[in-house]
Amino acid sequence: MDWLREAGDGSLVLSLHVQPGAKKTEFVGLHGEAMKLRLAAPPVDGKANAALTVFLAAFCGVGRSAVSLLSGETSRAKRVRIEGAGSEALARLRALG
Question: For the chain, which domains are there?
Answer without folding.
Answer: 4-88 (3.30.1200.10)
